Amino acid sequence: MITKEMHIGEIIRQHPETVQVFTNYHLDCPECQIADFEELEHGAGVHHIDVEKLLEELNLAVGKS
Q1: Is 2 left (phi over 0), alpha (psi -120 to 50) or beta?
Q2: What is the 3-state secondary structure (H, E, C) of 26-51?
Q3: What Rg do the C-alpha atoms of the chain give, in angstroms?
Q4: DSSP-assigned letter for residue 6
Q5: Which H or E run includes 20?
Q6: Which of 43, 36, 42 is nearest to 22 (CA)?
Q7: 22 — phi, psi (to 5°)?
Q8: How far is the C-alpha of 42 from the C-alpha of 62, rounded, in Å?
Q9: What is the pLDDT of residues 6-41, one digit of tens each?
Q10: 51 with 44: CB under 8 angstroms?
Q11: What is the structure's pLDDT at 65?
């Protein structure tokens, strides 16, 4: 299960199927230099994205709703 405390780089490495979700939100997380250091909640906040909705879609992508 993906949580909002996880680092974005960790999410992408463990679950490459989530890249499309990030892309759908216009986030270039796979190319971001700070993805390994930034927690999902912080990254979503910086980009004014509803972290709960993003989290739900990420977990759906990995089959953990």
Answers
A1: beta
A2: CCCHHHCCCCCCCEHHHHHHHCCCCH
A3: 10
A4: S
A5: helix 19-24
A6: 43
A7: -60, -40
A8: 21
A9: 999 999 999 999 999 999 999 998 899 999 999 999
A10: yes
A11: 62
Residue 13 one-letter amino acid: R
In single-letter form, the type of residue at position 23 comes to T
Residue 63, SS3 per DSSP: coil
Going by C-beta distance under 8 Å and a sequence separation of 6 or more, which residues neighbour residue 16? none
Three-state secondary structure call for residue 23: helix
Euclidean distance between CA atoms 62 and 32, whole angstroms: 21
**Residue 64 confidence class, pLDDT cut points 50, 70, 90:** confident
Q: What residue has token string 């230099």?
A: 33
Tell me which amino acid residue 20 is: Q
